[in-house]
Amino acid sequence: MILFEELETQTTNMKVIKRDGRKLPFESEKIYVALEKASNEISPITPVQEAKLEVLVDKVVAEIFARFDKNIKIYEIQNIVEHVLLSANEYELAQKYINYRTNRDFARSQATDINFTIDKLINKDQTVVNENANKDSDVFNTQRDLTAGIVGKSIGLKMLPPHVANAHQKGDIHYHDLDYHPYTPMTNCCLIDFKGMLAKGFKIGNAEVVSPKSIQTATAQMSQIIANVASSQYGGCSANRVDELLAPYAKLNFDKHLADAREWVAPEKQEAYAYAKTKKDIYDAMQSLEYEINTLFTSNGQTPFTSLGFGLGEDWFAREIQKAILKIRIKGLGHEGRTAIFPKLIFTLKRGLNLEMGTPNYDIKQLALECATKRMYPDVLSYDKIVDLTGSFKVPMGCRSFLQGWKDENGQDVVDGRMNLGVVTLNLPRIALESKGDKDKFWSILGEKMDILRDALVYRIERVKEATPANAPILYQNGAFGGRLKKTDNVDELFKNRRATVSMGYIGLYEVATVFYGGQWENNPEAKEFTLEILRQMKGAAEAWSDEYDYHFSIYSTPSESLTDRFCRLDTEKYGIIEDITDKEYYTNSFHYDVRKNPTPFEKLDFEKDYPVYASGGFIHYCEYPMLQQNPKALEAVWDYAYDRVGYLGTNTPIDKCYECNFEGDFTPTERGFKCPNCGNTNPATVDVVKRTCGYLGNPQARPMVNGRHKEISNRVKHMNGSIGHLSNGDDIDNLAHDERSKFFAK
Question: Judging by beta carbons within 10 Å of its beta carbon (0-12, 13-18, 19+), is residue 82 exposed, middle or buried?
């Protein structure tokens, strides 16, 4: 360049005033990139054109420096660029540049244009109707919710701080759940305080509900609580340690049956009679809960995203509840025994209780393995690792969001009744691309984007605090969030002092390292250390913000169901097709291993285990298997291997079923639907196709909205989940199972 670097040095103190009011350092490189992009639309850029662009940029910078001293507005820069291009007779280049700027401004306006987005909904635009895999846009109440969501997003963007709204629209960050928040001051996900609600009673609508006197009534009350909580927030809800929660109510059934037996049954058979009747009651109650959850529809047009955690109960009643949950899921729904999508089942493994052969609940672990091979659920928690990572044991809120250990004023560890206030996700691959392989620049840009992320999260907190207890009585007044506030109380009483979490999400660590080390970096210690350092830096910032604001800022490995596509699409528009980064048309979810490679589950877990140490606010690991129903010991080998390494593990295995020929396995995705590979059946009424979409299962065959996209969806399931770690055939499974179990029990 002639003057480019020289003038850059002279303008280091100049600030650019962005449309959202931020003041950022002037960088002439950004002018060059914009002109380069415009030039590439005319023809592939050549060395001669590069030199010409450098001269044009020099003229722009010289004009800026001559006319402005300290600050310059972004539109003034654009006007100067256009003037320089026209003066140099670069009419075609000027037209491309002007069109680009106009289109950007037009896109910003469309984002807040309610009529424009509603038109997209009416015309079934995939970006509108397919954002959530478990919402069927053909259903009236879902259509109503999507329409309300469009209004909410448009208003929400206008409510956000301008620089946060701008960063979201550009794709620097993603402000999650804009269709609900900040338009309404809703919370995200939670662990419902079922224990307190069932013990103390609660009110829903006009009904005062008293403490249940049987397990059947307890589960009926749980389903009503779930429906109301899910309608008062926008995230998932979980029941923590449900077997231990419901055991006392099953004991009430036993006591009643024993009293009856003493009146009508021979003395030597009285206790056996009471146990048999109670066992049947437990099964019926848990079956009712399964059906009720799957038949519920909340006000937001979907089945509540519900998770049930269990596995730690040791008495007879808790064991029977655990077995009933698993047997009911194995049996399936309806006459055909279809796989239940909800609730998500989360089984806890614990050394000395159910992990090893010979422990008291090892038999239930075997039932859980059978269930996972046939229904994908349960996912498993490693008790000791969860305590190590999060400070105390608890199941996740929804699919993967974890609370951190927290004690009340009496020093008691509190888990149930706590919640998350929302998520904002950082586009890490964009920062790496913008840095062009310069690590110093990468860290500088990361700091700049983190400032925006902080402002977005703080805004979420401040907005949620504007709610009143009357806005969501089930949450604030009737105990779901642990407290029993009065109408005039401040909801912040249940958020402050780090009782609530707010989550800093991230995506694409694989792509970030690829920018600096190439696409095959997983076995490069320096590359992996770089990705870990990114999370360390984010965690350090989160801890500082927690100290400053007194809410728990956590690092969250985002379940990027549609975000893997959105960020990549936006970055492809900005940076073009880049090998191993944007050419895939998706970004890799959170910290997961590149899905195009084929490590064993053990290699995958060893690679991923280091990341949740820093991202303990939200994480899950997945491994993918062939059919496992004839070899559950292979899955047990992975569960055992994972116990001391990772806290939360999901199973992905083919469980599709054809009711015409009884084939079970993996259906073939086609453009028109999923096809049975055995008999060719494609009738949605006689096939059961279940795929995992991030943290939850979904039934794409039953969603008319995705017809024509089944092949695409099936291909994308793995990259959304980071679901790799293959066991390729029966011999491999047997050998690995024997080898890894031998290592595990030799410790």
Answer: middle
